[in-house]
């Protein structure tokens, strides 16, 4: 139970969106009875919430745990999907809805020698339930994405020594986590309807009021004032609540990127380490921006060191540690905070075959193609929740997920009313959507980074910008227009 929040129980794992909008919105009773402890709850609390939801709505009786789906085949004649699980059990279903997660297929990089390492190693996305004891250990952590940035300060407080191996320096903004006071909790509970409305109408699923100003239309003094104020507030607001062109205009973005570099230089005492931590090869926000609690401050500790594996790459893992081109690092524990085969990885792990035995792996060999990120031409009655081609990971996830769940439920209900048994995206609609998605992505700065959004983190993966970058309002409008026009772009058959 809990998916991503079951597996990602690494030290420091907590939400990057605030609790009161990183939650379900379908039940008033649920939101009134659940008490969040803080702005950014830790993984155990989110998992408790998900378990509570399952119990409260009696969902467990409909869930089969410990069941890996390995195959799903569409039968042209019967119009049913046959789903096969690892022990070989077969299920027939008319509709198949995948909710396999955008960031669930762990990426453990192929580094020579890992099998002979005598210490312990872990990937953050498959963390042991019993936890890991770092006390007295020399720990190496690879990866400085959102996960590495959350884990670093917590591991540093436990380990004898922590060495962080950094390939790409990352921008991070303080979370400013704090307990939710009873007054604040009361205020939130009184305003949930408005909060949810705003999350659904905003670009990225956050209830911030939209900002209309460009970073280039205010004076330097005013710009710094705004950045400083929102830096003090913390969180994703730095991307979405400062100026409206940070992700669209390189010059505007440069002001935000430089502001963050200035903060890193202020916080980190050793100038060499500070410079190494300053990102210079991509604009702020072109990779998924992390938020942190004491990340940069951690490099002021005596037991923490930073190794630049961009200039001196990892060569191998030895029996006793890790060797880069320049030096050898003795380690007891290695933590891979190396991310995921995002958006397509967990779908393609399943052998999915559509009409005429068409394999999804073949169809997506050059990168994912979908209609609205909801369906794939050639794969009737298969729906993909937050699939590639939908805003998914660019939006606060519960908001994106609920939108898809509602759309798919309404669609299936519509089919029942119409006596339709089969729905399939047409190849023309899919082509047009892929073209439109590419166009809107090109209007952003997302191509300026080597990110998992583009599949660059996985060797050999086609370089395609996978989520829909047009923003939530435009996306929702188009999904609704498709419905209003009788499921335009889909073929429905009785
Ligand atoms: O993974 P990442 P993540 N050798 O792919 C490095 C969500 N999330 O687990 O940047 C050396 O972002 C890689 O280096 P580089 C969130 O959407 C949410 O941190 O490719 N290094 C990078 O530094 C996030 O974006 C929360 O050069 C290697 C790091 O590993 C997504 O999950 C919390 C390497 C991977 O960063 C993934 O984040 C945490 C190699 N071979 C995460 N391969 C919330 O709170 C990779 N790296 C909601």
Can you describe this structure?
33% of the residues lie in helices and 14% in strands. It has a 5-stranded parallel beta sheet, covered by helices on one side. The protein has helices at residues 4-7, 28-33, 43-56, 146-158, 182-190, 192-201, 220-233, 237-240, 250-267, 271-277, 295-298, 345-348, 360-363, 397-418, 427-442, 472-484, and strands at 69-74, 81-85, 90-93, 96-98, 120-123, 138-142, 161-166, 173-174, 291-292, 304-308, 314-317, 321-324, 328-330, 333-336, 351-353, 382-384, 422-425, 490-493. The longest helix is centred in the last third of the chain and has 22 residues, at 397-418. α9 packs antiparallel against α10 and α14 (397-418) packs parallel to α16 (472-484). The model has no long low-confidence stretch (mean pLDDT 97). It is α/β, with parallel strands linked by helices and 494 residues long. 3-acetylpyridine adenine dinucleotide is lined by residues 15-16, 103, 109, 142-148, 150, 167-168, 288, 309, 337-340, 393, 452, 457.
């Amino acid at each position: 139970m809990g998916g991503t929040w079951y597996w990602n129980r690494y030290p420091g794992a907590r939400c990057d969106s605030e609790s009161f909008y990183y939650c379900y919105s379908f039940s008033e009773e649920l939101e009134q009875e659940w008490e969040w402890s803080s702005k950014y709850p830790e993984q155990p609390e989110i998992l408790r919430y998900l378990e509570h939801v399952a119990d409260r709505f009696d969902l467990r009786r409909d869930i089969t745990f410990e069941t890996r789906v390995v195959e799903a085949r569409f039968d042209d004649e019967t119009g049913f999907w046959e789903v096969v699980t690892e022990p070989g059990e077969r299920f027939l279903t008319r509709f198949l809805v995948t909710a396999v997660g955008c960031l669930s297929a762990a990426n453990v990089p192929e580094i020579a020698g890992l099998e002979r390492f005598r210490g312990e190693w872990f990937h953050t996305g498959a963390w042991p339930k019993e936890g890991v004891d770092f006390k007295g250990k020399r720990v190496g952590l690879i990866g400085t994405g959102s996960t590495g940035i959350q884990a670093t300060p917590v591991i540093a407080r436990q380990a004898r020594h922590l060495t962080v191996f950094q390939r790409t320096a990352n921008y991070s903004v303080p979370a400013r986590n704090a307990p939710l006071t009873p007054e604040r909790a009361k205020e939130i509970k009184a305003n949930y309807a408005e909060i949810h409305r705003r999350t659904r109408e905003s670009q990225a699923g956050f209830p911030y009021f939209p900002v209309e100003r460009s970073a280039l239309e205010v004076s330097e003094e005013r710009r710094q004032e705004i950045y400083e104020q929102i830096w003090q507030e913390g969180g994703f607001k730095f991307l979405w609540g400062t100026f409206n062109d940070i992700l669209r205009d390189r010059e505007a973005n440069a002001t935000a990127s430089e502001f963050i570099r200035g903060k890193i230089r202020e916080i980190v005492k050793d100038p060499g380490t500070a410079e190494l931590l300053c990102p210079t090869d991509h604009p702020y926000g072109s990779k998924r921006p992390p938020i942190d609690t004491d990340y940069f401050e951690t490099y002021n500790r005596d037991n923490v060191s930073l190794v630049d594996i961009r200039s001196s790459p990892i060569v191998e893992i030895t029996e006793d540690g890790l060797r880069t081109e320049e030096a050898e690092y003795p380690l007891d524990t290695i933590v891979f905070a190396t991310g995921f085969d995002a958006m397509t990885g967990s779908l393609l792990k399943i052998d999915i075959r559509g009409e005429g035995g068409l394999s999804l792996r073949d169809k997506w060999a050059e990168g994912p193609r979908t209609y609205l990120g909801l369906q794939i031409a050639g794969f009737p009655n298969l729906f993909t929740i937050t699939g590639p081609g939908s805003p998914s990971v660019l939006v606060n996830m519960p908001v994106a997920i609920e939108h898809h769940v509602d759309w798919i439920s309404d669609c299936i209900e519509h089919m029942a009313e119409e006596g339709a048994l089969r729905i399939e995206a047409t190849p023309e609609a899919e082509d047009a959507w892929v073209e439109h998605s590419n166009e809107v992505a090109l209007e952003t700065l997302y191509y300026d980074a080597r990110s998992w959004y583009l599949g660059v983190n996985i060797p050999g993966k086609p370089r395609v910008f996978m989520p829909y970058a047009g923003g939530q309002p435009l996306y929702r409008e188009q999904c609704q227009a498709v419905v209003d026009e009788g499921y335009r772009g889909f073929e429905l058959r009785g």
